[in-house]
C-alpha cells in the first residue's frame, strides 16, 4: 500500500517497472508519481505538475478543489497523463514525458472533454478514446487536445447507484473491459465492470457486480473503489484502489485521507474476481524488490525540496527556499495564519496512524511553527513568536488559543505526537489524540495541549484530502533547521 493521502491511483507497467500517480487536490506540486519493481514497495520519484506553468491553483479555490483523478498510461514510447484541474479557469489537461521522473511537458488542454476522471486508451488502429465520469466517451487526439464528435454514453453502472465515475477502459483477451467506481467515495464505494467487443460498446455488465466493495462489512479498510488494473511480473492480474482506515467509535473517522491499496485479481469466465484487500504485504509469486529506506528526517541540505513536500496552492521561491540560509528551510509569511488560503505552509502527508513530528524553529524574525492541517477551517498548530509558544485549534467556525507558555530566547524544538486514544474505548471515542508541545534540550517532551483528533478528519471537515503535517510562517521570516516525521506504530 501507499499510506497517507494518496487517492485515485492510476498505474501502468513498462517492462519490469511500474509507475503510479495519485490526485493532489489543492496542493502544489501536483500529482505525486511513484515507481516500483514489485507492485508492493513504492518510491516517490517526483510530481507531474511541478511548475506554475502547469498548475495554477488560485487562492479563491476552496480546499478539496484543484487536481482530481489522473490517468497514467504509456503508449508509443511516451508516458501520457490526463487529469482534471477543477479550479476556476481549469479543465482537462494532458501532459507527456519520456522519463516519468520528469520533466513533464506544459499542458495541452482538452476543452471538448467534459467532466472529471478522464481516461485514455488506444485501440488497434491507433485511435485514442477518452472516457469520463458519467460514464461517457469521446474520440480524442491527445497530442492536440482536439475532440471529434460529441460524447456518447457507454454505461452508468448498477441501476440507481450514485456517482458512476473513475472509468478505465482496457483491451484484455477478446473483450474491452470498462472498470468504474460507483456508490460515491464514502462507505458505499465499490468497483463494477462491464465488457464489450468494441471500445464504444454496447457493454454487458458483470453479473457479480460490484466486483469489489466493503460496504456493510467490518473490514478495517473501507470506502474501497476508484480502481485500476495491471499485470504483475508473472502475468497475473492485480488491482490498485483507494480505501480508508477509519478509527474510533461511531461513525468512525478516517484521518489519513484515502490511501492506495493492492488486491489480487483472478479471471473466471472472462470476468475478474477480486481477492483480499490486505493491510499487510500480500504473498507474491515473484521476488520482492524493496526500494530505499524512507528517511524520517530532512536536514534541508539540498537546493530543492524533496518531492514529498507539498504546499497549499503554490510555492513561490520568494516565500519558500532552502537557499537563503544553507541547511535551513526559510519561509516568508504571506497569509496571516493557517486560516488563510494563501498561508505559506510546507508539509508532508501523515502516513502513519501513530507518529511524531518535530522541527527546530528559529522565529527571531517572525512567528510560525508546526501545524497539523486538514483544511483552512480544521487544523491544530503550535506557534512560536519571540519567547512565547502557543497552541491554536481551529475547528469549523471556532478558533481558540488552548495553551501558551514562555520559552527562552533562541531556536526551539516544536513537536506533535499522534497516538491512539487511551482505553477503555466507547462508541463515542475518537480516532486518535493529537498532543502538541515543546522538546527540551535533553529530549524531554513537554506537552502543552492534548486534542481530540476526530476534528481533523474527513467525517467532520468533509472533502477529499487527509492530514498534512508541516511548517508555516504567520508573520515575517521563519527558519527551520530540520524536520523529523517518524512512525510510532511499527
UniProtKB/TrEMBL annotation:
Keywords: Glycosidase, Hydrolase
Catalytic residues identified in the record: 8 (proton acceptor), 165 (proton donor)
Single Gene Ontology BP annotation: carbohydrate metabolic process
Single annotated GO MF: hydrolase activity, hydrolyzing O-glycosyl compounds
Marked site (Important for catalytic activity, responsible for pKa modulation of the active site Glu and correct orientation of both the proton donor and substrate) residue numbers: 117
Domain of life: Bacteria
Beta-xylosidase C-terminal Concanavalin A-like domain ranges (all copies): 297-484
InterPro entries the UniProt entry points to: ConA-like_dom_sf, GH43_C2, Glyco_hydro_43, Glyco_hydro_beta-prop_sf, Glycosyl_Hydrlase_43
Alphabetical list of Gene3D superfamilies matching this protein: 2.60.120.200, Glycosyl hydrolase domain, family 43
Signal sequence interval, chain numbering: none
Family statement: Belongs to the glycosyl hydrolase 43 family.
Name the UniProt record assigns to this protein: Putative Xylosidase
Organism from which the protein derives: Streptomyces afghaniensis 772
